[in-house]
């Protein structure tokens, strides 16, 4: 639990409060969790209730009944939060939701992938190897050169020529 209501000078003012929070905090957090929809809201609720308890610490006569006091603060705070939440509804001619973004058809994407792969297969062996290593295997130019035993310049020029051929491929022009 990350409840840190009292630190420094405040802890010195009420060491019994700091001790109470350390010992009873986990139990009170479970209570707060039962009042909220998620753990973060529960921590915030408990923090607020413990702050209220800290401010009233000197006025609380029976420290044996602190759990009841904090639980009541939890319930009252949660009730106040619930009452303050206001939801306004407005009548309008058009729905405020945006139009759904069209999702590309997976079949069309697969057709494009297949067409691209067939075009890559039509490249000369050396260019195809370099394109596959650079773009399918995601190797750098230096790594591709090392794998194929050629210079980086050779990889750059061969890949450039291969991409030019792919741009001119008639099947790819129709698929895009």
TrEMBL record:
Keywords: DNA-binding, Sigma factor, Transcription, Transcription regulation. The keyword DNA-binding applies. CDD domains: Sigma70_r4. Residues 115-166 form the RNA polymerase sigma factor 70 region 4 type domain. Pfam families: Sigma70_r2, Sigma70_r4_2. It comes from the Bacteria. Residues 21-86 form the RNA polymerase sigma-70 region domain. Gene3D superfamilies: 1.10.1740.10, Winged helix-like DNA-binding domain superfamily/Winged helix DNA-binding domain (1.10.10.10). Belongs to the sigma-70 factor family. ECF subfamily. This is RNA polymerase sigma-70 factor (Sigma-E family). It comes from Streptomyces demainii.
């Amino acid at each position: 639990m990350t409840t840190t209501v009292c630190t420094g000078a405040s802890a010195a003012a009420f060491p019994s409060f700091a001790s109470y929070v350390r010992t009873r905090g986990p139990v009170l957090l479970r209570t707060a969790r039962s009042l909220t929809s998620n753990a973060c809201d529960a921590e915030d609720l408990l923090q607020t209730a413990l702050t209220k308890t800290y401010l009233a610490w000197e006025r609380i006569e029976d420290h044996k009944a602190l759990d009841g006091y904090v639980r009541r603060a939890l319930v009252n705070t949660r009730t106040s939060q619930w009452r303050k939440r206001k939801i306004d509804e407005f009548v309008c001619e058009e729905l405020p939701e945006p139009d759904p973004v069209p999702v590309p058809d997976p079949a069309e994407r697969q057709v494009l992938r297949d067409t691209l792969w067939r075009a890559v297969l039509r490249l000369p062996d050396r260019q195809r190897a370099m394109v596959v290593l650079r773009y399918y295997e995601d190797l750098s130019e230096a790594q591709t050169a090392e794998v194929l035993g050629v210079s980086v310049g050779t990889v750059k020029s061969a890949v450039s020529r291969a991409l030019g051929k792919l741009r001119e491929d008639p099947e790819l022009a129709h698929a895009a």
